[in-house]
């Protein structure tokens, strides 16, 4: 039996799985197995997985397409480790990752943990900008990497998450729903009395989307998912989750302000300009790149508008259904 079972769902991303597996071969701590769950892909990665059979304790499974939640559950059922570790297929894992997790869990045991994400030097400027928008303290993304989550215990996210075998045996696998199933799963873990936490140095390099249009679609889905989560756990809808929607409404209201009050119009423009400048300066400094700084301002607007519009549309759908 291995200490860790790494579960990686993959769908039509053979090149990404190759890069991820290459990073696993460079881990300084090696007491783990790898389960690659092919979720009905047309572009299969079985030949690529075979290339790593001499370097990793690795198993490949092909199943009909059913989504990430089902694929993770499929991996849980076949895992042998004490801990199940979930990665998205578009992640790169730094060589110290499992050594860091092992040292942390031995010192401060957790039933489930999560780690943050960062941008790798090899990422494109757009990927770095998207990564900035999803991790910056100037957006709601910054909350995801904090030990003290707003409103309660830390909620691990499934792109970089580990849970003990005991958690799985008690809670079971993912509750399959249309949206937000990873957060719903984490909340279920916490409600069963298990301890969760953030391991700050157990970060991964998360590629996310490679274009702003793909990024918008993803964040629009995330906004809708937050409302869907509230259908299962109403108390989990916090004030902070409304910020992207309020920002979106604020930006959309600026042209209307010009019709009613020149002072309010100018004030709104100044506030928006200051916010854009702060993002530009911070992103440029962190990435040492003017190009990434400029792209990051665009990425932040894509993030907030995508999430905000998804949140508003799904919220309206929920509200109108409840009043019928």
Automatic annotation (TrEMBL):
Pfam families assigned to the protein according to its UniProt record, in alphabetical order: Glycos_transf_2
Keywords from the named record: Membrane, Transferase, Transmembrane, Transmembrane helix
GO molecular function: transferase activity
InterPro entries: Glyco_trans_2-like, Glycosyltransf_2, Nucleotide-diphossugar_trans
Residues that span the membrane, as ranges: 263-281, 293-312
Top-rank taxon: Bacteria
Domain Glycosyltransferase 2-like: start-end pairs: 5-169
PANTHER family: GLYCOSYLTRANSFERASE, GLYCOSYLTRANSFERASE 2-LIKE DOMAIN-CONTAINING PROTEIN
Protein name: Glycosyltransferase
Lineage: Bacteria, Pseudomonadati, Bacteroidota, Cytophagia, Cytophagales
């Amino acid at each position: 039996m291995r200490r860790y079972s790494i579960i990686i769902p993959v769908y039509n991303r053979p090149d990404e799985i190759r890069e991820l597996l290459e990073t696993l071969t460079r881990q300084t701590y090696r007491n783990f197995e790898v389960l690659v769950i092919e979720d009905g892909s047309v572009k299969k990665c079985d030949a690529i997985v075979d290339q790593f059979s001499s370097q990793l304790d690795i198993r490949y499974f092909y199943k009909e397409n059913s989504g990430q939640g089902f694929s993770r559950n499929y991996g849980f059922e076949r895992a042998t480790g004490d801990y199940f570790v979930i990665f998205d297929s578009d992640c790169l894992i730094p060589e110290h990752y499992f050594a860091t997790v092992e040292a942390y869990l031995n010192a401060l045991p957790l039933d489930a943990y999560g780690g943050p994400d960062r941008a790798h030097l090899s990422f494109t400027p757009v990927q770095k900008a998207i990564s900035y928008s999803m991790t910056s303290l100037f957006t709601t993304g910054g909350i995801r990497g904090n030990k003290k989550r707003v409103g309660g215990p830390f909620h691990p996210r499934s792109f970089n998450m580990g849970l003990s075998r005991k958690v799985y045996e008690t809670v079971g696998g993912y509750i399959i729903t249309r949206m937000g199933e990873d957060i719903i799963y984490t909340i279920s873990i916490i409600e069963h009395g298990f301890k969760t936490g953030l391991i700050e140095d157990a970060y991964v390099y998360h590629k996310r989307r490679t274009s702003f249009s793909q990024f918008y679609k993803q964040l629009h889905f995330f906004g809708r998912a937050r409302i869907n989560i509230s259908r299962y756990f109403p108390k989990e809808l916090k004030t902070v989750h409304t910020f992207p929607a309020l920002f979106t409404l604020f930006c959309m209201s600026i042209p209307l302000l010009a019709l009613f009050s020149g002072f309010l119009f100018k004030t709104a423009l100044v506030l928006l300009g200051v916010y854009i400048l702060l993002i530009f300066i911070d992103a440029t400094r962190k990435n040492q790149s003017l190009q990434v700084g400029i792209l990051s301002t665009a990425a932040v607007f894509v993030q907030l508008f995508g999430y905000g519009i998804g949140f508003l549309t799904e919220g309206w759908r929920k509200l109108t259904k409840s009043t019928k």
